[in-house]
């Protein structure tokens, strides 16, 4: 069986004037047009190709890597809006349609949106959706407190940044706990900070607990060395000053310099931290 909207490893069955016909173990065939045919090949070789529908709604294979695949969230740009919906550039010749019914807000040309790609069971077409919550499940969680996870940043709210966790769940990074530049569509690592009784998930961009001390201490030490052995910060410094210089919270800073002090790497004086 050939899965549309995904990569498939298929066998070269025969060579024709329009390209190579590839086949799966289930007996399904698909065309790899001439412009995508490799220079060297033999009948019976296996190729890994991406399969989708062309402009005439025919299954076709390509060796081009798209910006998104079926079952995944990604940031894409709108190239056209017409009576059918918004068409997004996903790296292939035929653009990805996001019907009006699948737009959280009316999409605009040249704007970027995080979308989910899926196969419409009624039309058998690959389409996108900007109504992300419908594809996220916080009822059946696959993560636990402290887990390291993969995040996709989706939007900024009054509380902070909404994120997609491991392509499956919805979470939130509180704005006052962000100490680095992030933007909608960014794919970054994070940590499960707290799972609430209603299964809402708080996420941190920094390691948690004991595991966070060594990386934090190392980051502070590197900054001290970079600044010729002195950092004009101490445990009474303004949190904004610490965030500006180190991109971390005051709490993390105090833990980090505590580790360095115990390891006799630094001296803490009234004017700041000095390298020993």
Question: What does this protein look like?
Answer:
This protein is mainly beta. It has 4 domains: 6-62, Nucleic acid-binding proteins (OB fold (Dihydrolipoamide Acetyltransferase, E2P)), CATH 2.40.50.140; 73-133, Nucleic acid-binding proteins (OB fold (Dihydrolipoamide Acetyltransferase, E2P), Beta Barrel); 148-205, Nucleic acid-binding proteins (OB fold (Dihydrolipoamide Acetyltransferase, E2P)); 210-275, Orthogonal Bundle (Arc Repressor Mutant, subunit A). It is 13% helix and 39% strand. The chain contains 3 helices and 18 strands. The chain has helices at residues 213-226, 239-246, 250-262; strands at 6-15, 19-23, 29-33, 46-53, 59-62, 73-82, 85-89, 96-99, 112-120, 125-129, 148-156, 160-165, 169-174, 187-195, 201-204, 230-231, 266-269, 272-275. A hairpin with a 3-residue loop joins β12 (160-165) and β13 (169-174). α1 (213-226) packs across α3 (250-262). The mean pLDDT is 93.
Secondary-structure map:
Elements (H helix, E strand, L loop, with lengths): L5 E10 L3 E5 L5 E5 L12 E8 L5 E4 L10 E10 L2 E5 L6 E4 L12 E9 L4 E5 L18 E9 L3 E6 L3 E6 L12 E9 L5 E4 L8 H14 L3 E2 L7 H8 L3 H13 L3 E4 L2 E4 L1
Parallel strand pairs: 13-15
Antiparallel strand pairs: 1-2, 1-4, 2-3, 4-5, 6-7, 6-9, 7-8, 9-10, 11-12, 11-14, 12-13, 14-15, 16-18, 17-18
Helix pairs in contact: 1-3
Short description:
This protein is mainly beta and 276 residues long.
By CATH, the architecture of the largest domain is named: Orthogonal Bundle
Strand tally: 18
- The helix/strand series, from N terminus to C terminus, equals EEEEEEEEEEEEEEEHEHHEE
- Which fold does the CATH topology of the largest domain refer to? Arc Repressor Mutant, subunit A
Number of domains: 4
Q: Helix fraction? A: 10-25%
Shape: elongated
CATH homologous superfamily (4th level) name of the largest domain: Winged helix-like DNA-binding domain superfamily/Winged helix DNA-binding domain
Strand content: 35-45%
Largest pleated sheet? 5 strands, antiparallel
Strand order of the largest sheet: 3-2-1-4-5
Mean pLDDT: 93
* Level-1 CATH class name of the largest domain: Mainly Alpha
| Number of helical regions | 3
- What would you call the structural class? mainly beta
Q: What's the N-to-C terminus distance?
A: 65 Å
- What is Rg? 25 Å
Q: Which regions are unreliable across 5 or more consecutive residues at pLDDT < 50? A: none
């Amino acid at each position: 069986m050939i899965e549309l909207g995904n990569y498939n490893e298929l066998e070269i069955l025969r060579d024709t004037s329009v390209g190579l016909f590839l086949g799966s173990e289930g007996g399904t065939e698909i065309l790899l047009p001439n412009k995508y045919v490799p220079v060297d090949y033999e009948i019976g070789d296996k190729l890994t190709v991406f399969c989708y529908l062309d402009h005439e709604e025919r299954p076709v294979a390509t060796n081009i890597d798209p910006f998104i695949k079926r079952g995944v969230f990604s940031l894409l740009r709108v190239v056209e809006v017409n009576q059918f919906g918004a068409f997004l550039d996903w790296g292939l010749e035929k653009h990805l349609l996001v019907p009006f019914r699948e737009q959280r807000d009316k999409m605009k040309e040249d704007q970027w949106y995080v979308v989910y790609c899926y196969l419409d069971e009624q039309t058998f077409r690959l389409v996108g959706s900007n109504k992300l919550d419908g594809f996220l499940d916080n009822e059946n969680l696959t993560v636990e407190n402290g887990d390291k996870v993969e995040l996709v940043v989706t939007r900024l709210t009054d509380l902070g940044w909404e994120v997609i966790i491991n392509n499956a769940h919805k979470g939130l990074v509180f704005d006052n706990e962000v100490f680095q530049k992030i933007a909608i569509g960014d794919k970054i690592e994070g940590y499960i900070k707290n799972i609430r009784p209603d299964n809402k998930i708080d996420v941190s961009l920094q390691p948690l607990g004991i595991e966070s001390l060594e990386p934090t201490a190392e980051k502070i030490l590197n900054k001290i060395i970079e600044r010729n052995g002195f950092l004009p910060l101490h445990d009474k410094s303004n949190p904004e000053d610490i965030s500006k210089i180190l991109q971390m919270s005051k709490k993390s800073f105090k833990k980090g310099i505590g580790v360095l002090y115990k390891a006799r790497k630094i001296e803490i004086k009234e004017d700041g931290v000095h390298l020993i």
